[in-house]
Amino acid sequence: MTLLELKDVSVHYGRIQAIHNMSFTVGEGEIVSLIGANGAGKTTTMRTISGLLNPSHGSITFMGEDITKMKAHIRVVQGISQAPEGRGIFPAMTVLENLDMGTFGRKDRTGVSDDLERVFTLFPRLKEREKQYGGTMSGGEQQMLAIGRALMSRPKLLLLDEPSMGLAPQFIRQIFKIITEINSQGTTVLLVEQNANQALARAHRAFVLETGEITHSGTGKELLANPAIKEAYLGG
Ligand code: ATP
Questions:
Q1: Which mutation among 42, 160, 215 tests ligand 1's pocket best, with the greatest number of atoms within 8 A of CB?
Q2: Which residues surround ligand 1 with Cβ inside 6 Å?
Q3: Which CATH number fits the domain 2-233, given the four candidates 3.40.50.300, 3.40.109.30, 2.120.10.30, 3.40.30.10?
Q4: What DSSP line would sit under the chain, residue for residue?
Q5: Which pLDDT belongs to residue 129?
Q6: What is the ipTM of this complex?
Q7: In the predicted model, is pLDDT for residue 86 greater than 70?
């Protein structure tokens, strides 16, 4: 089943067009990766799906409903949650308070405590540091916290913008393993990455974005084997 569909979406910053007539779908249960160079439009795409930016043209459908004009906070309640690029955690709040911010709008307290357990099982480090202030944690830990907070809204679709950015190699492997685990527990994932190798290896399907347009698409395996993509994105 199609969970998310972008149809002919264009996005402008003033007179600058960042996204050109983009169309793609994300199926329920998939990991879909968007790869591309700096400035290709990956973050713009994510922010348009989460509702922080408005398309100038085209439509976005989620679970069969047109959400093109829906406010960002309503999209969270509907099941779309984003862990933003640059982590975006609250530095002056503890780990636990940060995670609690992710439950905004939820009234099912038992569900919330189950989800907190799930986050602590995925990220034992967050449990160990639950009383520590977000801003005092390492980059890798803040990244885990951002993903954990996004999971606290129990999303159907998790948007991950550059989860491996700035992480040490051992954290990068760990983050991608955890993303696969989150997905195998039933959460659909749309992943934006500059680490194309890992992003393609973990994806069911993937798209390559160049200056705001999709130039290649296929299964993760197909794109990993594509000579043009190897040359441009996978270090030859
Ligand atoms: P990065 O990995 O560097 O974040 P990206 O693929 O996510 O790159 P975007 O940040 O989406 O790319 O940027 C797409 C295009 O839109 C770029 O040409 C960028 O310069 C432009 N752009 C992004 N944000 C703004 C803004 N606030 N105002 C004007 N132009 C912008």
A1: 42
A2: 13, 16, 18, 36, 38-44
A3: 3.40.50.300
A4: -EEEEEEEEEEEETTEEEEEEEEEEEETT-EEEEEE-TTSSHHHHHHHHHTSS--SEEEEEETTEE-TT--HHHHHHHTEEEE-TT----TTSBHHHHHHHTTTT---HHHHHHHHHHHHHH-HHHHHTTTSBGGGS-HHHHHHHHHHHHHTT--SEEEEESTTTT--HHHHHHHHHHHHHHHHTT-EEEEEES-HHHHHHH-SEEEEEETTEEEEEEEHHHHHH-HHHHHHHS--
A5: 95
A6: 0.92
A7: no
